Each structure stands twice: as C-alpha cells, then as structure tokens.
Amino acid sequence: MKLLEERIKEDGQVRPGNILKVDSFLNHQLDISLLEQLGNEFYEKFKNKGITRILTIEASGIALACLAAQHFKVPVVFAKKAKSKNLDGELYTSTVHSFTYGKDFTVTLAKKFLSEDDTVLLIDDFLAVGKAMRGLIDICNQADAKIAGIGIAVEKGFQSGGKELREAGYDVYSLAIIDEMTDDGSITFRS
What we know:
Elements: H1 2-11, E1 13-15, E2 19-21, H2 32-46, E3 53-57, H3 62-72, E4 76-79, E5 91-98, E6 103-110, E7 119-127, H4 131-143, E8 146-156, H5 161-167, E9 172-181, E10 187-189
Parallel strand pairs: 3-4, 3-7, 7-8, 8-9
Antiparallel strand pairs: 1-2, 5-6, 9-10
Keywords: Cytoplasm, Glycosyltransferase, Purine salvage, Transferase
GO biological process, one term: xanthine metabolic process
Catalytic activity: XMP + diphosphate = xanthine + 5-phospho-alpha-D-ribose 1-diphosphate
C-alpha cells in the first residue's frame, strides 16, 4: 500500500538492530485517518471470508484491529500480555516472544470470546519473526476457530515470519513489506 510506504518513508525512523520506529502514527500516537484506510484495505481483501471476530495481541495491534472491525461490523478480541484480576473463567494461553521487548509473555484470552463457531482475521501492526502471530494461531487452534487470514500493517520481509506463515498455508496480507533497512535510515520496500 503506497500510502503506508510513503508515511513510513516520511515519518519512520530506522534504529540499530532492525528496529523501525513508527510511533508518531501507528503504535504510540495514532493517525486515525490512516488507520481507517488501513482497516478498509483489510476489509477489501477479506470481506468475503465470513469473518466473525478480529483477534490481535495487546497493545499495538488493538487500534488497527478496531478500525478494521468497523468495516466488518464484528467484535475485536485481544490476547492480554498480563493476567489481570478481572480476567475470570476459563482461559486460552500461549507464550509469545516479543522482538521489540526482547522477552517472552504469556498471553491470555477468555474462552467465552472465541469458539469453534468463529472465523477469525488476525491483525497486528508488525510482523518480524512471527512469534506473536504464532501465539494467536495457537489460541485459535485451542478454540478450534477457523483462521481466514492474517492482516499486517508492516512486515519485515527480510526476517522469517511472513515466509514461514505463508509456507504453512496462511493467507498473509501485509500492507507494506520492507525488504531492507540500513542503519543510515534507508528503507527498501518490496514491489
């Protein structure tokens, strides 16, 4: 999606260690107009898949998932990274490794919000090595929910996550795929 690529070029910052900082519009401060357009792009791709739920992981994927859900007119559920006192009942759990934070999280989702009757669109802001997405897939598998597709705002195509998920048969739709980032700030997108 050229609009997102242009915004990354304009406002993104490449940091050492293959980190792309897009906090001015995607995952700290939110450009709602941009997110609405990204959400519509996911809707156009997956609108005929019978989506009943959108699933993401706390926290950066929530805003994007919500704006996509407006188009699908379905609820958003998100896996929480910490078990809070207000989580009750039976839970799905999975362990995920955060590339950005460099640590493992046990994510949880109340079983009452996801079942075998659901057809799920997984959405997240970034895809690097795919650990967070594999955790969401694990939760869907525990629920016997059908995964219709995976929507990603920014995929780091030079890392293994997207390739492995596609090889496993998932319909991964990334709006911007980065083939290369250099410490001098240059970014090359897949055409």
